[in-house]
Design goal:
The chain is 27% helix and 29% strand. The protein has 10 helices and 15 strands. The protein has helices at 3-13, 47-55, 80-90, 100-103, 109-116, 144-153, 208-218, 252-263, 293-298, 328-346; strands at 26-29, 38-42, 60-63, 94-97, 120-129, 132-140, 167-175, 192-204, 226-230, 234-251, 269-270, 278-288, 303-307, 322-325, 351-354. Strand 2, helix 2 (47-55) and strand 3 (60-63) form a beta-alpha-beta unit. It is globular. The chain starts with a helix and ends in a 15-residue tail after the last strand. The relative contact order is 0.15. The model has no long low-confidence stretch (mean pLDDT 96). The structure holds zinc ion. Zinc ion binds at residues 65, 287, 328, 332.
Length: 369
């Protein structure tokens, strides 16, 4: 099993095009054709993690944060990223990062956090717009079922918990085959009237080519009359954060204790609120999500769990939502475990391990005195 097979699988689930413009996810170091001996998953990769990879027989390291982020102009060993990249090259270790593309998908970083906190009915907190297209295609009546089937199989017409969605309307089309045409029906130079159906499907941007190829393959016309239309609809499969409900309402104080326990946070900061108030709906965003508190409040959540909140972010929270800062890394660690587990379930030819190196950059001093 080569590195490229794993990379393809990862990017089918979280395509690189979903990452932010400032990000640098993907295969950063290594030969795509190398055979995988083992995979080590971590939040942050550094030399210590790479040493662990060598000792544990892994030649692929998957990290959430990209070790090459703002660009790398020299390799003199002056910074952690320079030393880490040089070490990886020397030891033939491939480095792969899955960052904001995994923050952006249902089932990604924030969904792992929500699962760890025991939330149910979890949905994307900030569904993304600009990710859906509408395909309109005109097809002779008798070919409509075949074309629809091909489109569905390629992934068109899938919305939330429904698939095979489309709309068909019956109408009349005209065309006149010109010199050089090889018409499926009709003759050159004569206007043809055809009984057709107009089929409409919703298609994710990422599946455009696949759907087009599938439909064109079974469509009888030489020139397939069609339109691709950009939709402004938001799409519940993509976007930052997650929102869900606790099975039972709990006291805020008990909820915060639960969060700290589940995530192994040394310290949890929260915005001023009565610890006896009741919490039921919870929105979360793994990593640095404090800036999305308006969206979190708009979901009707009682609490917003994220990391990296600033002093003024705790003041005057929208709608009185309680901001709970569990720590940036702590909010992302459940994802590393879920990531490893998902790869383990898919690939059986190599071991998938979770790094045991404690390279957490932030430590907490507990003031007991
Ligand atoms: Zn992060």
């Amino acid at each position: 099993m080569t590195v490229s097979v794993l990379v393809d699988w990862l990017e089918q689930r979280a395509p690189l095009r979903l990452q932010e413009s400032y990000d640098n996810s993907g295969l950063l170091v290594g030969d795509p054709n190398a055979v995988i001996t083992g995979v080590l998953c971590c939040l942050d990769v550094d030399e210590e993690v790479l040493l662990e990879a060598v000792v544990r027989g892994c030649n692929v390291v998957l990290s959430h944060h990209p070790i090459i982020f703002k660009g790398l102009k020299r390799l003199t060993g002056k910074t952690v990223s320079e030393r880490t990249v040089a070490f990886a090259v020397r030891h033939d270790i491939a480095l792969y990062a899955g960052h904001t593309n995994w923050d952006s998908i249902a089932g990604g970083v924030s969904f792992s956090l929500s699962r760890r906190l025991g939330l149910e009915n979890t949905k994307v907190m900030m569904p993304r717009t600009g990710e859906l297209l509408q395909l309109v295609v005109y097809v002779p009546n008798e070919f409509a079922p075949i074309v629809a089937e091909a489109a569905f199989t390629a992934g068109a017409g899938h919305l939330g918990n429904y698939d095979e969605c489309h709309f068909a309307s019956v109408g009349t089309g005209t065309f006149r085959p010109l010199e050089g045409a090889m018409p499926f029906v009709g003759t050159r130079g004569t206007r043809e009237v055809a009984h057709e159906q107009r089929l409409e499907f919703v298609v994710p941007v990422a599946l455009k080519n696949r759907v087009q190829e599938a439909v064109w393959r079974v469509h009888p016309y030489e020139e397939v009359a069609h339109s691709w239309i950009s939709l402004d609809n938001s799409w519940s499969d993509l976007g930052y954060g997650a929102v869900g409900d606790l099975r039972e309402p709990v006291r805020l104080g008990d909820f915060i204790a639960h969060v700290a326990r589940q995530l192994g946070s040394d310290a949890v900061r929260y915005s001023r609120a009565d610890l006896d108030r009741v919490v039921k709906r919870v929105s979360v965003c793994g990593g640095s999500g404090a800036e999305f508190i308006q969206a979190a409040a708009a979901t009707g959540a009682d609490v917003y769990v994220t990391g990296d909140a600033k002093y003024h972010g705790f003041q005057d929270t929208p709608g009185g939502i309680v901001l709970v800062d569990v720590g940036h890394g702590e909010s992302e660690l459940p994802f590393i475990e879920d990531w490893a587990e998902a790869i383990r379930l898919e690939f059986v030819t190599f071991a998938v391990l979770i790094s045991e190196t404690n390279n957490r950059p932030v430590r907490t001093y507990l003031n007991h005195g």
